[in-house]
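Final report, results section. Input specification for complex C-07:
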Amino acid sequence: MLDQVVYVAAVSVLGVFEQAYFSLQVIQARRKYSVSPPSTAGPPEFERVFRAQANCSEYFPIFLTVLWVSGIFFSQAISSLLGLLYLYGRYKYFQGYGKSALGRLAPLYFSAKILWALLAFSTLGVLNTLNQLYFDVDFLQLLNSV
Amino acid sequence: MLDQVVYVAAVSVLGVFEQAYFSLQVIQARRKYSVSPPSTAGPPEFERVFRAQANCSEYFPIFLTVLWVSGIFFSQAISSLLGLLYLYGRYKYFQGYGKSALGRLAPLYFSAKILWALLAFSTLGVLNTLNQLYFDVDFLQLLNSV
Amino acid sequence: MLDQVVYVAAVSVLGVFEQAYFSLQVIQARRKYSVSPPSTAGPPEFERVFRAQANCSEYFPIFLTVLWVSGIFFSQAISSLLGLLYLYGRYKYFQGYGKSALGRLAPLYFSAKILWALLAFSTLGVLNTLNQLYFDVDFLQLLNSV
Ligand SMILES: N[C@@H](CCC(=O)N[C@@H](CS)C(=O)NCC(=O)O)C(=O)O
Ligand SMILES: N[C@@H](CCC(=O)N[C@@H](CS)C(=O)NCC(=O)O)C(=O)O
Ligand SMILES: N[C@@H](CCC(=O)N[C@@H](CS)C(=O)NCC(=O)O)C(=O)O
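Structure output:
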């Protein structure tokens, strides 16, 4: 049974490593630009790093939800692959935002697209399972066995 | 087995759609009131939309936790229904907060009540399972089969 | 099957109670220091309470992820114990940060260490499961049966 979620679990763990890295970068930026807690205001260089981590944190639960739902109800292989791409996109977002506000945009669009794909697959997977329950039709059987 | 969580999964997916909608509203408000990242300060109209989304995002993981725990350990039917009500309450909260700070209060109280109910059912469900493990008593068997 | 996750579920529910307590403290601090939404700026006493809750909220999904992954793939007993310690550390963090910015540091280091441990066990558990799948070796079988 664990083998049916081990890849999405692996991607989730990788995501936690990434979030930990983002947090450490904020701590470092706090030191570099002397922005002591509880303050969150500082030079734009600091605020970009601070907001980059805040934005990634805000989306992390959303990401995990669609990663797991599409992984369980649609296809683990497709979900974990998209999950890896999402984490890559967020890394680029964090780096880009750190350099300039504009630098965040391209990776943001990229990771937003992945998130929409995961959301679409989650929806399909859930609808398919409801279909099976009520109409005994499994139109995703082949896909799910990928 | 999937049928035991498909409704809470469906509500979670709906919740992600809602969070996506809130995010898009913040992006629109940033354009409308010219508040460019990394800034988060602007006219009260902007700040209310910004905070509404921030507040809903902050509660989203808490909501998912009690939705799933009470859905798995207590009753999927009751949890998903409460989950739908919570998402409705948060929609009203977002709309209300967007209009005025006071407008957020009634829907906030409503969704807080739902959250307490889900938390109570989660606690009951977990305690019941522990009871079954140690004392072989299942006082929720009837309710869980609802 | 539920018995394999009931302790991590119990710790998660406890975590939700803790987050609810933190939120209520922010609401109280808003009243005490007259900081009306959508504003989040106020005297340092308010901002410390506000940031303490924000920081704990930000880490909550990360905590849940490693709690569940290490609970399922490594050892439920070890994970739930570490989970309890983490929640205790976060309580101390909240209290300490409320008193002074410095007061947050010792509990922060403590809960960060717990988080790293949970992350390490999650990684080990996932790697072990992948190992079993591909090489039919289960080097954690003994530990997992703890
Ligand atoms: N959002 C956090 C990310 C990094 C973090 O967790 N920092 C620790 C050590 S400086 C903290 O206690 N931050 C205080 C806070 O978030 O208000 C921050 O702004 O600092
Ligand atoms: N909390 C976000 C919600 C919407 C969002 O994700 N916005 C994108 C595009 S404007 C972003 O990169 N925001 C920058 C930020 O959150 O600092 C915000 O304040 O903007
Ligand atoms: N982060 C919240 C924590 C407590 C909470 O949920 N407060 C409710 C009632 S005052 C709220 O609507 N807060 C508005 C907001 O978060 O902007 C806050 O700053 O207030």
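Chain B has one domain: 2-144. The mean pLDDT of chain B is 95. This concludes the modelling results for the funded period.
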